Here is the input.
Amino acid sequence: MAKARALDRRRRSVKNIRKITRTMELIATARFKKAMDRSIAARDYTLRLANILENIAGEGAGIMHPLLEVRPTQKTGVLILTGNRGLCGGYNSNVVRQSMAAIGQWRSEGIPADVAVSGKRGISALKFRGIVTSARYTNFDDKPDFDAVKPIGMAYLAAFTTGQIDRLDVVYTKFDSIARQTAITEMILPLKTPEPSGKSGRSKLSSQEYDYYPSAESILEEILPASFLSRFYKCFLDAAVSEQVARMVAMKAATENAGGLIKDLSRRYNRARQSQITGEIMEILGGVEALKGA
Amino acid sequence: MSDTKHTDSEKGSSAHGGLLRCVIVTPESTVLDIRARFITIPLFDGQRGVARGHSPFIGRLGSGGVRIVGEQGAAADAVRRMFVEGGFAEVGHDSVTLITQRAIPIEKLDVAKAKAELTALNASVAAGDEAIAAKMQAIATARAIVHAAEHQN
Here is the structure.
């Protein structure tokens, strides 16, 4: 009976685990939907800013701004976006692997990198690998707040304009679609020079039709930091959406695996129980036969 | 102002034809997307009224109140007020888009907090160009909040 009882106990514990993973899957699905809605809602701002930038670029005057200036890299900033929690498949480890590659590359070139990391998982993984981090954030979960992201972005803007860093890379998981998220290293400073609006432009008016108050240059001066902040915020939003998708997929797989395991354990338990019963009957029969002979 | 002229001329036109699409977007979401008769926006150097048919422009916003008059589906003289903090306005022939970092309905502004902030900012001492600029910006925002909330009517 000992074996059957042990199998039953194991089966019960796997059932409990399945309950937990299924709940986590449902929670991740709900959070993913919310995070996705936020990400879609934020898209409009970025598009409209890009639209104005295209219009200003279409003015013809050469665009010059400190944030567009490509300088030889002497010091660089790297920001790594991971999650605070695990149980989301390869989400955190992919980002950590990607960031180690980026940091390793700067090291091999002898360029000092200022590494900042968001998410408890990334903090401990980098600590384990002996990477010194200048800033650690744990306040970004599935709902990154623009007001919380803004000060970090502003600090990077100030560091870039004062020459403390010559470029900024963000390592995060880009959300391409629900079936595809990739851990990438994206350079977000210096900004890419805006191109004049082409066929992709949303605007119905050509850039010449607009008046600028106070002037195109002044607007550009304000719009580039705003455009940087929106791209920076998008990285956080993408990371949040990707984390939830990764957790959803991982927990779905875990629930399915638990189901398989329960099936297997049940079969083994039934077999053990059956053979035990058979054994007991044989013992009784043996006893009866022995008594007959006496 | 020449803009007011537009409003008056549009008053007589059909309900939909005289309306202007007003959109306010923040980095987090599209806060407002409605049609209205007239809108006053706080540009960097003062308020500007816009109605349908205004010549297109792109302008820098300051901090202050946005007044939207004659919203579709509401009374002709109904006014909706919002507070925006910096950003840009893109005015087309029949639409106004405000791209701002923060947009709050005036009723939800915390005036007491803004007043306390203003007092604290006025008492604080900033050293260095950047700190001074940041302080001036914060003072301007706090003042704009107090002004927008106290001059609703």
